[in-house]
Amino acid sequence: MTILYPVILHTFRLSGAHMKFTLDAAMLSKQQADCIIIGIYEEAELSPAAKELNKMSEGYLQKFLKKGEFQGKIGQTFLFYALLHIPFERVLLVGCGKKGPLNAKDYRKIVSVSIKALQPKVTQIISYLPELTVEKKDLSWKIKHAVEVTYQALYQFDQFKTKKEPSHLREVRLAVPKLAKSLNTALTQALCISKGVEYTKNLANLPSNICTPSYLANEAKKLAKQYKNISVKILEEKDMKKLGMNAFLAVAKGSQEDAKLICLEYKGGKKTKNPVALIGKGITFDTGGISLKPSDSMVGMKYDMCGAATVLGTLKAAAELKLPLHIVGILATAENMPSGHAAKPEDIVVSLSGQTIEIMNTDAEGRLVLCDAITYAERYKPDTVIDIATLTGAVVIALGYHATGMLSNHEPLSLALQDAGIESHDRVWPLPLWEEYQEQLKSPFADMSNVGGRAAGTITAACFLSRFAKKFHWAHLDVAGTAAMMSGNDRYATGRPVPLLIQYLIHRAEKKHAKN
C-alpha cells in the first residue's frame, strides 16, 4: 500500500500570489485535486497514469481517444469536466507526440502548455508529466524543469496596469514513484532559480524613467540588507574619475543620470577563495548617444541593462541556495544619451587599464563600460570572470533568439558553460576568438578602436573586451538575442541567462569542473 506522503518544500510568492509545490508519492486513485494532468501519445497510446485513469473510467478515456477528436500531438490539450468515475473535477490531456523518449524542448513545451491551459480555471493541480521519459534526463531533471517552466508560464508583469489578472493557481503537486533526497534538492534548486529569474525579469521590465543607475544601486543595497552573506559598495562618478575609469565615464557624459559602478560580494563559504566575478552591462537606456539610433531601434533599449539585472538575479538565487562559493557581482550602470556634453566619434579616452581607445561609434558603449569594470574586477583577484551583456545586434543575426553567443579565452570554462547550458536548457554557442579578428580594431591614433566594422561584429566586440581580461579565465556572454524578446507589442524579459549561470555555479560548488 502506498501512503500519501507529500513533502512540501517551499511556499513561493510569484507575481503577487503564493504558490506551493509538493512532491507526492501517493497512488493516483488516492489523489485529490481540482485537476489532474496526464500525457497522451499519438495513436491513442496512453502514458502510465493515463492507463490507470482509463481503468478507473471503465475504458471511457480509451474510447474517447479512438474517436480521433484528440490526436496527441505535442502541445495539444483537451480538458474534460466530470469524467465518468474519476474523482477529479477536471482532467487535462496533454499531447506528447509519438510514443518514445521526448527531447528537452518538447518536455518543457508540454509542461508550459498544460499550465497555460489551466491557469485561469484551477487552484490546485496534480501533474503526472514527470513520469514521461526524456532523452538522457533523470527524474530530478524533470522535476526541476517542471517547476521552472511552471513559473515561466505563470509570470506576469502588471505593476503599471490598473486592471490586473491574478493567477488563481495556488498549489502544484508533482507525482513521483517515491520520495528521495535528490528530488528534494531538485525542487529546492528550481524554486531558488525561479526566484532569481523573476527578480531579473521584474528589474528588466521596468521602464527607464524608473530603473536608473540609482535605482539599481538601491536594489543592490536591498539585496545586501536581505541576505547577510552579501555586501555592497557603490562607486560614484567622482570615485571613478579619481581611479581613471575614463572609458566608462565617456558613456555617461551626455546624461543627467549619474553613472554608478555597483559592486556586490557574496561569501557563502567559510574559506574565502579566489572568487568568480560576474560583470553585467547596465545601460538603463541606450539612445546610441551622438551616434543616434533610428527611433524604431530605440524601442526595447530599456532592456540594455539585462546583464546587470542578470547579475542581481543570479546573486539572489545563489544566496537562496546558500551556495558555498565566493562570488563578486559588478554592475556597470549608466545611461547613454546625446547632449552638448556627450562623447563624440573620434574622441580618445584612457581606460582604467591605461590602454587608449578611439571612440568611433558612441553606440558601441557597452564595451566601454565593461572594459573598465573588467579591469576594476582585478582588485578582487578572481580566477574566473564572466561578463553578461546585451552587446551586439550581430549576435541575433548569427544565432537568432535561441542561443546566447559565448566567447572565452579558456577552453575548460567554455566547456563548463556549455555543459551548464545544456543542463539548464539555457544554452550558449561558442564563437571563435582568433587573433586575426583583432586586426579589425586597429586605430591610427590610439591603441584600439571601439568598433571593428560590420563583419563579425559579435566577435570583434569580444576581441575588444579580451584585451582587458588577460589576467584571468574569462568568458563573454552576448545575450542581445536571449535576455529579452521583441515582437511588436509583445515585449518581455526572459530572465536568461540566470538559469545558465546558477547551473554553472552549482556545478562549480559540486566541483564538477575543477579546472574552469
Layout of helices and strands, plus pairs?
Elements: E1 7-14, E2 17-24, E3 35-40, H1 48-56, H2 60-66, E4 77-81, E5 90-95, H3 104-118, E6 124-127, H4 139-154, E7 171-175, H5 181-205, H6 213-226, E8 230-235, H7 237-243, H8 246-252, E9 260-267, E10 276-286, H9 295-298, H10 306-321, E11 326-336, E12 347-350, E13 356-359, H11 366-377, E14 384-389, H12 394-399, E15 404-408, H13 411-424, E16 428-430, E17 448-449, H14 457-466, E18 473-478, E19 484-487, E20 490-493, H15 498-509
Parallel strand pairs: 2-7, 3-5, 3-6, 6-7, 10-11, 10-14, 13-17, 14-18, 15-16
Antiparallel strand pairs: 1-2, 4-5, 8-9, 9-11, 12-13, 15-18, 19-20
Helix pairs in contact: 3-4, 4-5, 5-10, 6-10, 8-11, 10-15, 11-14, 13-15
Structural write-up:
Strand 15 (404-408), helix 13 and strand 16 (428-430) form a beta-alpha-beta unit. It is built from 15 helices and 20 strands. Residues 1-11 have low confidence and may be disordered. By secondary structure, the chain is an alpha/beta fold.
Descriptive key words:
disordered N terminus; 34% helix; elongated; 15 helices; seven-stranded mixed beta sheet; 516 residues
Largest sheet: 8 strands, mixed
Strand content: 15-25%
For the biggest β-sheet, the strand order reads 8-9-11-10-14-18-15-16
Summed over residues and divided by their number, the pLDDT gives a mean of 94
Radius of gyration: 25 Å
- Distance separating the two termini: 48 Å
**Helical content class:** 25-40%
* Structure class: alpha/beta
Q: How many helices in DSSP terms?
A: 15
Shape: elongated
Care to count the β-strands?
20
- Spans of at least 5 consecutive residues with low confidence: 1-11
